[in-house]
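Please go through the sequence and fold tokens given here and tell me how the chain folds. Record follows.
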Amino acid sequence: MVSQPPHNSRVLQVRNFHELATTPLAHGINALCWERTLPGDYAEVVRLLGDGAGEPITTLDEAKLLALPVSPAGRTAIDHMLADLRLLRDRELDPVLNCIHGYPRDEEPGPVVTDVFSFHADSAPIEAYTWLCTYYGPPSEGLHNEDALRRIDIAATRAELLKLHGGPDDADFKIFLSENCYDLHYAAAPGAQPYSFGHFNLWRIATDYPGNPVPPCIHRAPATKPSDPARLLLIS
């Protein structure tokens, strides 16, 4: 049996990878969390990967990780990350493990910022899910759907977007919003409390796809400071 944490009716905790992969997202549940504690020295892995100078996001493959001169604890960390990659690949997914020192920002945000630091929903043309795990560094954050406002539904923001579009609020405007991903970004309602995805937990979250029976899971990359450590993030 899977259990539902009382603090968030949208999230269902599961006990193992099989439940994570096979439990349907339905009845309002739009995120599954396999809560784990993994041994190993992930800080050592980040340190040996370098400071990311000139390359803020480094994609890590097995050869690059196994070539690092790590301690036994560092090797344990690497073994766990590679095991997760294999779990997802065995389900015919295409996971990526990144060491992230920083993300590009939306240089011309206009009325709606659309970079990963904005609360957003992922989208897909067919049934699909996003898988996430933060091993080290600031973890991803979620926002309850009940605490979120679509930015395009905020009157002042919509008025600015209409000016940018240069036309009426019609079908063409809806296409404009979709093509620019403005309709996928959210603002936190006053008093809303985002929740942390935590470290080592493997998540499977709902995307915005046609016919999805549940609302998409709203999330973002954490706001980071220059002094924060790099993130080790698995995403698919």
Observations:
- The CA atoms of residues 111 and 157 lie 6 Å apart.
- Helices lie at 17-22, 42-49, 62-66, 72-89, 155-165, 171-179.
